[in-house]
Amino acid sequence: MNRSDKKMTHLQSGTRTTGAFALAAAVALAGLAGGCADDGPQPWALTKITQDYTFPARDAAGKVVKGGVVVPAAALNRGREAYVHYCYACHGMDGDGKGPSSYGLRPPPRNFKKGNFKFGAVPAGKLPSDVDLARIIWDGLHGTAMLPWDIPEQQLWEVIQFIKTFPGVDGKDNRWQQKFTRGKKKGQLKAKIGEPIKTTPDPWKGKSQAAIEKGEELYHLKAQCWTCHATYLTKQDFSDRSLAVDGKAKTTFRPNMYESKLVEAKDLYGVDVLPPDFTIDKLRSIRRGNELTDLHRLISAGVGKMPAWTGALSESELWALAYYVRSLQLLGEPENRAKRAALWDKLEIQPKFVPPPPPPAPATDEADEDGDEGDEAAKKKADDGEKKTATAAAKPAPAKPATPAKPAAPAAPAAPKTAAAPAEPAPAKPAAKPAAPAAPAAP
Ligand code: HEC
Ligand code: HEC
Fold first, then answer.
1. Which fold is adopted by the domain 3-171?
2. pLDDT tens for residues 11-34?
3. Which ligand has the nearest atom to the CA of 265?
4. Which of 109, 143, 389, 409 could form a Cys-Cys staple with 125, CB 3.0–4.6 A?
């Protein structure tokens, strides 16, 4: 029932049929825009665009459109006017997120010069598609100043193109306009839209309780979502389950484990961000009536510093996590207050944690190495940063939380060990190799 659902297909084709603008394109002169933006004293959104721009694109099937899509100056100028009408008050005439209404907003309006986006259905850190941007703009981001905007489709498409024209920081090409600077492809478009995350069939339909239980396990064990978000198990339960599932009891816990941990993200958004506590905070990009699908998208894609889990977890696991997070989100509904209070009480007034007796000392020293690793160290070890876009460590920093969250946790006293690296999903264990093919049976 989201507006964007209804309109998206149409928009998608709009993205591809730039031919509709052929006439305007023919009139517009000038080579492709690049970093040659003239950064005069005139604010960008008040400066007439005189050249066509080429932006990266994917077609409806998700394939990269070679060479990108040309957007004519005329369309960009219409988008510019719509931007001045609807968006500049927060995002600023120069796209830097410092419009007259931006002051004091937390989170702050996005700086489009940097071109960092959070909620696209693409792995964290990649550029979103126009369809993603339309969903975000039409449906808004709950709990932030970014409200849903009811803008006619054609105009919305033009605004979306226009926000890609802002010159990058220091007048460099922004992320939408990046080109190869050397080699055979020099001058050609290098920017790319991220690989789209597809909504796969929900394998847990009709088995939601089982999904929630599986999700709870994954959240705390394999995916370690609690390194940034809150933990929702008692220490005893956490430890017992890790012993049952991983064969190794968890005995050390991060400070303030029942609170989210501030994640350093100043480089991306100008502020650090406090991950939501799912039982209290509004989830920004999760739309009413579409929660499970949106959670599947979000968890698969990650958010800025929250790494993408697509590929690292199976579809069934991603969906189970969506069910679990949804079950926590439902605890925030008025009719579930008592249940939420019961969960919080259980966590707050838990019996003293009794670590299980250490296993008998193993004969090899290989196990020894594992033995004295805290969770943090274990994660550092998993150095397959390739899939994950987030690598910065979440510092137990005292800075102000950026999100309108519950009363801030007193900053964790600096943990002795350096901060947790973002959870690296445990590398999937290689399946036991089948034995060498048996010799063909004798005839
Ligand atoms: C009242 C202030 C306000 C106005 C007006 C506004 N925005 Fe935003 N916008 C925000 C804030 C705040 C954020 C940051 C939200 C966050 O980081 O979670 C944001 C974020 C965004 C994002 C980033 C989404 C992502 O996935 O990271 C886009 C794109 C965007 N706005 C587009 C627009 C467009 C286009 C318009 C005009 C049609 C507009 N905004 C009008 C406040 C505003
Ligand atoms: C490296 C830290 C980190 C880890 C690990 C992490 N997250 Fe997040 N997560 C964040 C941050 C930061 C945000 C808030 C992003 C923002 O709004 O800018 C977030 C936001 C979310 C949201 C809310 C999205 C919205 O639309 O508001 C969901 C849902 C979520 N995370 C689920 C998970 C799940 C499930 C896991 C484990 C599979 C996980 N996260 C692991 C840092 C993390």
1. Cytochrome Bc1 Complex; Chain D, domain 2 (1.10.760)
2. 443 343 333 333 333 333 333 334
3. 2
4. 389
